[in-house]
């Protein structure tokens, strides 16, 4: 029995000693291992190569951006922006990562707006409007947002979509002029039925902003026997002289003097 106890104790001590020796051996090896060395010259060469490649890419993208601007200017003059849309979009796609990538897309949309005319298919006009609105939503903080919002009014005005233009919310004096003009044109095209074709001595409420903008315009200068009819543009000579004298741009725009 004693021999068994001695044997068990001896085995236990041998196990503890072997574990300790193994741990010390691994610890000694760990201390002696050399950490991986970094070749500074090689890393600097890699960094310089990357910087050079990025610089070349920026130069190429800059050339592409200038090429796109030149092509769009030429296309506006020849009125064929829509015909080469795939080319322009491919150039814009190649500008991803370039600081002016968003500006390039905005320039393309503005070029398309400038070539819209009265006979442009309504589906094309609506599609372009939706594209501009989506672009504005995706780039809400871009500095060109206001200019693109203005381009929607220009788009509807070029397409002579009076109904859609009259429903827009003006954001400045220029867009207010466009909306008021559209609202008046709709009203003039559909005048209320009257029993007698007598001159109307009331002032069109749409002219209230004119009075506010031009100062002391008396009601007599805003009255015309053609009120309520498409012939509102034929204002009298006296009204013309007064408006020109006051240099009221808002009145000139709405009265089409």
Which helices and strands appear, and what pairs or packs with what?
Layout: H1 2-32, H2 40-78, H3 85-93, H4 101-114, H5 122-138, H6 145-158, H7 162-166, H8 173-189, H9 208-214, H10 219-222, H11 237-246, H12 249-255
Organism: Haemophilus pittmaniae HK 85
Signal peptide: 1-23
GO molecular function: hydrolase activity, hydrolyzing O-glycosyl compounds
Description:
The chain is mainly alpha-helical and 257 residues long. The protein has two domains: 54-160; 169-192 and 200-257, no CATH class. The protein contains twelve helices and no strands.
Short summary of the structure?
The protein has 257 residues and is an all-alpha fold.
- How many domain regions? 2
Number of helices: 12
What number is the mean pLDDT? 72
Q: Give the N-terminus to C-terminus distance in angstroms.
A: 127 Å
- What's the total number of strands? 0
Kindly provide the radius of gyration, computed on alpha-carbon positions and rounded to a whole number of angstroms.
38 Å
Strand content: under 5%
Helix content: 55-70%
InterPro entries: Lytic_TGlycosylase_superhlx_U (IPR008939)
Signal peptide: 1-23
Keywords: Signal
Protein name: Conserved domain protein
